[in-house]
Each structure stands twice: as structure tokens, then as C-alpha cells.
Amino acid sequence: MTSVNIPYFSEIFLIRVQCSSCGYRTSDFMNTRYGKPIRCTYEVKGEKELTARVIRASTGTIRIPELGTTIEPGPASQAFITNVEGVIARILDVAEIASEWVESEEERRRCDIAIERIKKAKSGELPFTLIIEDPFGNSMIIARDQSKVQIKELTEEELRDLRTGGLMLFTPYDFDEYLEGD
């Protein structure tokens, strides 16, 4: 475990585990604090915005509406630290693998169009919006000009709609309702 202080964010612990027998490995990071549920929004208008740092906790959801992409946490969700271009590269990898499974010419055509759009986004030719939502405030976008990153606290209703991976969230309302049920 390694401790790292990330400017504009906080101190985190990087954790990497690898099985010496089978080689399975996983990595994650733990924030030294839990924040309020947040949504970070960043407009990517060209190549220079692709270098902004993206910290995605295992509970973070990534959305790129212009590409029709949503990456939600699941039970085996892993955290990662990359840049905007790295997020797009991950999406491109998945799209290219998925395109190998298409069954019709129409599906192939639609896949090819989607992959071209993703490639244009990756090169900075296609403007898009990167949105990260995290119920614990442990994900963040860090840009050279941090004023270009909009950070908003999520409402209780927005929080209820988020997936949280292997975690379960209780708002005060949920807990009160649970106690009343006894």
C-alpha cells in the first residue's frame, strides 16, 4: 500500500494485490476521507482537454452522453487513475471487442460508426462531455484549469439512481423507513 497526495483532491492509498499462485491481480485506491456525493462535469472541446486527470473510484459512474456511454460500477469494479484520453481508450477497447460479436450487416455498420466517433473523441476532433458521479465523493476530474470542471453535490434523488458496485447506501430516510418496518 502506498500513500499519494493528489492536488485538488486528497491523500489516497494505492492498493495492489497479486496472487503468487495463479497470477490474479487487482488494484484499487482508498480515499483517506469520504466526501459528499458529487457530479463532476468537464467539457472536452479539443485535444488539450484530453490530458485532464481522471480519478475514478470503484464506486464512480462515468457518462459520456455524446458517445452514448455509461460505465457503472459492479461487484468487481476497480478504481483507476488515468487521463481523459485513457478513459476514451478503455471505451474504444470495449467497442472494438464488442464489434467482433455482431451478427448482421446493420449491426456491423452501426458498430463501425460508433467506433469512428470514439476515435474522433480520442483524438480531440469530436467535442464531448465527461461526467463522473460518485456517491462517496471519491472520484474527480482534475484539469490544468480547474475552473473548467463543474462540481455539484448530488441530490438524494440523484443519489438513489446511482449504482455503487458492491456497496449499499442508506440515506437517513432509508434508515428511518427500515427501523419503522420492525
Structure description:
The chain is an alpha+beta fold and 182 residues long. It has one domain: ZPR1, A/B domain (Jelly Rolls, Sandwich). Helix content is 27%, strand content 31%. The protein contains four helices and eleven strands. Strand 2 (11-18) and strand 3 (25-31) form a beta hairpin. The longest helix is centred in the middle third of the chain and has 19 residues, at 105-123. The radius of gyration is 18 Å and the shape is globular. The protein starts with a strand and ends with a helix.
What would the keywords be for this entry?
182 residues; Jelly Rolls; five-stranded antiparallel β-sheet; alpha+beta; 4 helices; 27% helix
Question: What does the secondary structure layout of this molecule look like, with pairings?
Answer:
Blueprint: E1 2-5, E2 11-18, E3 25-31, E4 38-44, E5 53-56, E6 61-64, E7 69-71, E8 80-83, H1 84-99, H2 105-123, E9 128-134, E10 140-142, E11 149-153, H3 156-160, H4 172-180
Antiparallel strand pairs: 1-2, 2-3, 4-9, 4-11, 5-8, 5-10, 6-7, 6-9
Helix pairs in contact: 1-2
Task: Give the total of domains.
Answer: 1
Overall pLDDT level: 85
The third-level CATH topology is Jelly Rolls
Fourth-level CATH superfamily? ZPR1, A/B domain
Strand order of the largest sheet: 7-6-9-4-11
Taken in chain order, the helices and strands follow as EEEEEEEEHHEEEHH
Separation, N- and C-terminal Cα atoms? 42 Å
Structural class: alpha+beta
Unreliably modeled segments:
166-176
Q: CATH class, please?
A: Mainly Beta
Shape: globular
Number of helices: 4
**Total beta strand runs:** 11
Architecture per CATH nomenclature, i.e. the level-2 architecture: Sandwich
Largest sheet entry = 5 strands, antiparallel
Percentage of residues in DSSP E strands: 25-35%
Oligomer status: single chain
Rg result: 18 Å
